[in-house]
Design goal:
Elements: H1 2-16, H2 25-35, H3 40-52, H4 57-100, H5 104-133, H6 138-141, H7 150-164, H8 167-170, H9 174-187
Helix pairs in contact: 1-4, 3-4
């Protein structure tokens, strides 16, 4: 029954997360709240691992969540659930789009999806920023100094400075910054 629910939940996510892997984050956050399968902190860790590993973020997240919940079979079933709607939709579109590609309504529908995917990606970005920069300790202490996760703020400021303003590091490959951030996260335990 768990595997069937994993497939169904990720099929819903795959069907409605228009805009790529980051667009799955609001749905995964809702899944965490509704099922209790993982916490928001674990979701942030899953995102970090999914961002750092090769492959599409959405599929990496589905695989990670599925593995966390149901082991290897859960990983396979979650991944299949996520990609099933896309496969079906792509096959249907390929079948019919050839005949309707110049139709103004079809063009309008694709044009109309742009704000939707932009909104989902923006919501994902805000969710990630909240998870990373807001200190959970603030809810308990209400002390203004506990509001922000200062280590994350300092790391983000350093990364922005190094990637945007320092001429010597500006042109380095992004993997250098990902690896350095992972190492700093391990060393400073965040």
């Amino acid at each position: 029954m768990l595997y069937l629910r994993l497939f169904f939940e990720f099929m819903k996510i795959g069907l409605f997360s228009v805009g790529g892997g980051l667009a799955t984050l609001p749905f995964l956050r809702e899944l965490a709240v509704n099922t209790g399968w993982f916490t928001e902190a674990q979701l942030a860790d899953m995102l970090a691992v999914s961002e750092s590993t090769p492959g599409p973020i959405g599929i990496n997240m589905a695989t990670y969540v599925g593995f966390t919940i149901g082991g290897v079979p859960g990983a396979i079933i979650s991944t299949l659930g996520l990609i099933t709607p896309s496969i079906i939709i792509i096959l249907l579109i390929a079948l019919f789009l050839k005949n309707f590609s110049d139709n103004k309504y079809v063009k309008g529908a694709f044009y109309g999806l742009r704000p939707t995917s932009t909104g989902l990606i923006a919501a994902a970005g805000l969710s990630v920023a909240y998870l990373v920069f807001i200190n959970p300790l603030f809810a308990e202490t209400h002390a203004i100094l506990d509001l922000l996760n200062w280590k994350a703020v300092v790391l983000a400021a350093a990364l922005i400075t190094l990637t945007r303003f320092v001429k010597q590091t500006k042109k380095l490959h992004p993997i250098v910054f990902i690896a350095a951030s992972a190492l700093i996260g391990i060393i400073f335990k965040f």
